Amino acid sequence: MTTQALELPVQIECRSEHAAICQQADPNLLTKIPDQFPILKKVLADPERYKVQIQLSQIVRDEQLYPHLISYRLFVDDKRYFYPASTVKLPVALLTLEWLQQQQQVTLDSTFHTYASRDSQQMVTEDAMAKGGRPTLAHYIWQVMMVSDNPGFNRMYELLGQDHINQLLHDKGLSSATINHRLSLPMSAEENRHYNPLAFFNAEQEVILQLPARSSSTAYLNTLQPKLGSAYYQQGALINQPMDFSDKNRFSIQDLSGVLERLVFPELFPPQQQFQLAPEMRDWLLAAMLLYPSESMQPNYSAHGIADNRYKYLKFGGEPTELPRHQRWLNKIGSAYGFLTDVGYFIDLERQLEFFVTATIYVNANETLNDDTYEYQQLGLPFHRELGEYLHQQLSSKPNQHKPDLRRWQALIDQFVQ
Q1: For the chain, how long is the longest CA-to-CA vector?
Q2: pLDDT band, very low/low/confident/very high, at 370 (cuts 50, 70, 90)
Q3: What is the reported pLDDT for 30?
Q4: Angle, CA of 194, 142 and 148, to the nearest 5°
Q5: Separation CA 265–CA 16 (nearest Å)
Q6: Alpha helices of 148-278 — where are they, by DSSP H?
Q7: Where are the alpha helices (DSSP H) in 188-318?
Q8: What kind and span of H or E run contains 93?
Q9: What pLDDT does residue 4 have?
Q10: What is the DSSP letter of 377?
Q11: How far, in Å, are 125, 264, 317 from residue 377 at the CA level?
Q12: b/e string for 147-168 if b means 16 or more Cβ within 10 A?
């Protein structure tokens, strides 16, 4: 096996005050890629074409097993736009759970009806995938985290609204966050600032909370004002000019990674920057990210032919395959406009290994958007798979003086898998 050193601009940040922790940083971690990872090498050798950005956060434990992070950033630039797609579902789900905890009567299992006050809006009072066809926040969030459900995200977006979402994310130190539209619905920027009336019901079908139609007066535009591609399709017509993403959602790589870091290790952040979740609520959400679709009883995704790796890009992306049960990838993916993005926390229960990775790649050779001709299978998923395998090999080979106690993850699996 040959290895070719790549001259790559890796930026290293030791997020610890302990010199002994910082000394474990490896400046060569992302610069020597073996030939067994040809797609990874190809992409890293042409970062402008593939708009690639990678952040790896190595987790180093001290004597008390407290986690410290050493972050490696490759081509990461907060001013370099990528379309975050479904990755924005994770922070919105976290804010929804925070909102829920502030309610007096509404619970995860309260029936949740969404109505329409404008022609562009959708009315939803039943869901075929939900138990008894009854939509609830529990069902929507489970669907969002398990199978990246767009309607579930849209219901949370309509519940919270742009003002609440953007203000709270900024308050938590996630300054790049710009959430200004539903997903997979052809609505104008103006229509996306209007939110459906909705109601929650108790077990006796009595209304326990009702919210009227609401709207935002502030336009949360993407301040980068990015334009991508050389042409795009709109309502079936080809427009021969770059597509403007100024009114699209935005999240930087560092902030996207920061969302998951706040969930897994809230103790690393000041209280005002944490997502304030009760332990049982936090464990429930983590279980939705930890389990594979085949392990979910309700909904039963196996009956719908959903492969375990369908929404796991890093290390597992590509053709359907059986995934190792001792390895888990707690993640959120995004796929749209030629961008494939994955943010996650990887654990290997056998090797007692853990690390964070956030990575995005753009695979759109013809530079035409909305034509559904992207190289997801040929380049995007193999890139994520090879990146994950490479990092797993590299970090597994490093001495780990204080191994993490990962038994809580196995306990969560045992709790939710009957």
Answers
A1: 68
A2: very high
A3: 86
A4: 65
A5: 14
A6: 150-171, 253-264
A7: 253-264, 279-290
A8: helix 89-101
A9: 57
A10: I
A11: 36, 30, 9
A12: bbbebbbbbbbbbbbbbbbbeb
369, 375, 381, 387: CA torsion to nearest 10:
-100
Cβ(385)–Cβ(318) below 8 Å: yes
In this structure, what token pair is assigned to residue 71?
């972050």
199: β partners: 113, 210
pLDDT of residue 418: 66
CA distance linking residue 192 with residue 304, whole number of Å: 31
- Going by C-alpha positions, the residue among 98, 145, 96, 155 that lies closest to residue 124 is 155
Upstream peptide bond of 242 is cis (omega within 30 degrees of 0): no
CA angle 147, 150, 151 (to 5 degrees): 115
Q: Which helix (H) or strand (E) holds 360?
A: strand 353-362
pLDDT beyond 90 at 288: yes
* Three-class DSSP category at 385: helix
Across-strand partners of 336?
339
Q: Which residue, among 120, 293, 280, 113, has the nearest Cα to 206 in the 3D structure?
A: 113
Task: Indicate if the alpha-carbon torsion angle 403, 404, 409, 410 is positive or negative.
Answer: positive
Could you count the other beta carbons within 10 Å of the beta carbon of residue 184?
11
Percentage of residues of the chain with pLDDT beyond 90: 92
Token pair for residue 191? 């229509």
Q: What is the mean pLDDT of residues 236-259?
A: 97
Q: How far is 316 from 247, CA to CA, in rounded Å?
A: 32
Q: Contact at 8 Å (CB) between 12 and 48?
A: no
For the record, the structure tokens of 262 come out as 């706040």
Distance (Å, whole) CA 387 – CA 315: 7
